[in-house]
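idk why but the lab printer keeps eating my pages so im just putting this in chat instead. protein + zinc ion:
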Amino acid sequence: MPNILTDLFDLFFPPACINCSELLQIKDKYLCFSCLSELPLTHFSCQAENELETSFRGRIPVHAATSLFYFQKKGIVQKLIHELKYHHQPKIGSFLGQWLGEEMVASKRFELIDIVVPVPLHRDKERKRGYNQVHSFAKSLAIALKADLKLTLLEKSRSGQTQTLKNREQRMMREEQEYMLKDAMLLENKHVLLVDDTITTGATMKACADPLCHVSGLKLSLASMAFTV
Ligand SMILES: [Zn+2]
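predcted complex ->
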């Protein structure tokens, strides 16, 4: 929508806070000041050996890893990600990507990232939802880090039922070998940032990282909107 139409729309239907429904001030985006200040920030970007990094130890070689928020069930972060995922609000992804991108640039631990690669959805799922909720987030990160964005390098080979399998090991086994890397040459000797919305067991990140780890000279870092402890 052109800016003037957005402004007019906002005048008649002022945007409300996603969490508490309070009407937003002009400078606020998606959350009111009070909900924004309650967000559980991790500060992982500037913290070497943070919980997220150590959770991958012995599973995949990770140079550095960060998440913007801790994920809490029924919390504000879950609401934000739900809006992004199911209510067609890709701008929330851009907003979070900008935020995390600034943190990562300031930390100096993520210098010289060459390529940003989002975790793909299966094609059928992406068609059904209309978009991949991680793309707008990955795009903002790539802009902040001055890196290239490659949306289609990884492909999910089958849709699976990972979310309905309760057992952690079952889920991890199912996720294995589900992702294919299309152009390995392009990633040789590159620092790649693999990006997802939420990291829970880390099984999806590991499944995506497995084909990447076979690429010669590739250095891998990870970033997500949220991390479940
Ligand atoms: Zn609020």
